[in-house]
Amino acid sequence: MESSANKTDCPMEGTCSTEIYTNSTLEIVDEGSGRLYTQKVAGENIVVEFTYFKPGPVGTADGNYTESIQFEVPSDVKNLNIKDGELSKVKLVFGKMGYRNATFLPVLTGKLLYEKTGNTIFFALDFQLDGNSHEVSQIRETVIME
Asked: Sign of torsion, CA 70 76 79 85?
């Protein structure tokens, strides 16, 4: 896990971070009930994970809220510009975690631009999820891998 990110497009109520996982693969696991979750395992690709975290009200034990956007790109890819149905090629998923709730969904509508130059990764993502509310819908990040 390596990263140093320029954080942008983060809702004011929370904090955002980006992690880059080199030599990894993103596995999307269906536990049988229709609920999906993700695992990062050893592999030959780069997994990008953007996280938005909003703390719960003071004095609550389980009031935190988190959104996670994850995708995987082959290590040798320098430029990628894809949209909508093509997003499945990078296993783009959105996760929402809150009080007793964790749900990951494939992102099928949106546009992803990815550029890798040396040890710097830039990505811009605009996406929508039909029928699901979410705080983050646009991300523009520059990450320097250390």
From this structure: negative
